[in-house]
Amino acid sequence: MSCLTRKLQQSITRYLQRHDELVRTDSPENVRGKLINQGLCPSDVTQDQIRLIMQNVRAN
Fold first, then answer.
1. How far apart are CA 21 and CA 4, in angstroms?
2. Which of 15, 35, 47, 54 could bridge to 41 as Cys pair (CB 3.0-4.6 Å)?
């Protein structure tokens, strides 16, 4: 089970807020892959965790 810390969640949220085109057009799987490839998130962060962050970004 991955450990999504509050600081990491805030960091990912800020990144997705600045890059809102990812939230609007990509699936959580693709966003997760892009975040991992850019070194912004560890590979053990799950797709469901990314989906929840994306939903929060959309809601705000």
1. 23
2. 35
pTM, two decimal places: 0.88
Number of neighbouring beta carbons within 10 Å of residue 42: 12
Radius of gyration of the chain (CA): 10
Residue 24 · residue 18 · CB < 8 Å:
no
Residue type, 57: V
CA-CA distance, 47 to 52, in Å (whole number)?
Answer: 9
Measure the CA–CA gap between 34 and 28, rounded to whole angstroms: 10
Q: How confident is the model at residue 1 (pLDDT cuts 50, 70, 90)?
A: very low
pLDDT tens profile 8-43: 999 999 999 999 998 999 999 999 999 999 999 999
| Dist CA 32 CA 46 (whole Å) | 8
